Amino acid sequence: ARLVESGGGLVQAGGSLRLSCVASGFPFNNYVIGWFRQAPGKNREGISCYSRRDGRTYYSDSVKGRFTISGDNAKNTFYLQMNNLKPEDTAIYYCASVLFLSCAPEIMGSPRGSTGPFDKWGQGTQVTVSS
């Protein structure tokens, strides 16, 4: 299985970006896609997830109301639409996957940097928000 992210870049505060994550080689269609981010000197933070099977979603408080996760199951492509970006959103963004679970806050790791049960990771894409 493989995950490939794209869509990062440099944007001014208040702007928008859409990240994409293409999944390939999965043996089953029942998996969760999670989006995580890691800023310099900080722990990796779980910010959103999406269940491919039932469309369930979750958002952390830090992005709720500004970010939207979605999926095109026919293309095995998953998106993170990021609006009203802030300088504190600057980080490397990763998509990750785990089989046979459902999207829920409990699987999104912890503030101490745990990344929960996610076992497949993309290479990451840099998002930089200038003030």
Structural description of this entry:
The relative contact order is 0.32. The protein is 0% helix and 49% strand. The radius of gyration is 14 Å and the shape is globular. Strands 2, 4, 5, 6, 9, 10 and 11 form a seven-stranded mixed sheet that branches. Strands 1-3-8-7 form a four-stranded antiparallel sheet, with no helix packed on it. The model has no long low-confidence stretch (mean pLDDT 95). By secondary structure, the protein is mostly beta strands. It has strands at residues 2-6, 9-12, 17-24, 31-38, 45-51, 57-59, 67-72, 77-82, 91-99, 120-121, 125-130. It contains no helices and eleven strands. The N and C termini lie far apart (37 Å).
Helices and strands in order, then pairings?
Blueprint (H helix, E strand, L loop, with lengths): L1 E5 L2 E4 L4 E8 L6 E8 L6 E7 L5 E3 L7 E6 L4 E6 L8 E9 L20 E2 L3 E6 L1
Parallel strand pairs: 2-11
Antiparallel strand pairs: 1-3, 3-8, 4-5, 4-9, 5-6, 7-8, 9-10, 9-11
Outline of the structure:
With 131 residues, the chain is mainly beta. The chain contains no helices and eleven strands. The strands form two sheets. Strands 2, 4, 5, 6, 9, 10 and 11 form a seven-stranded mixed β-sheet that branches. A four-stranded antiparallel β-sheet has the order 1-3-8-7, with no helix packed on it.
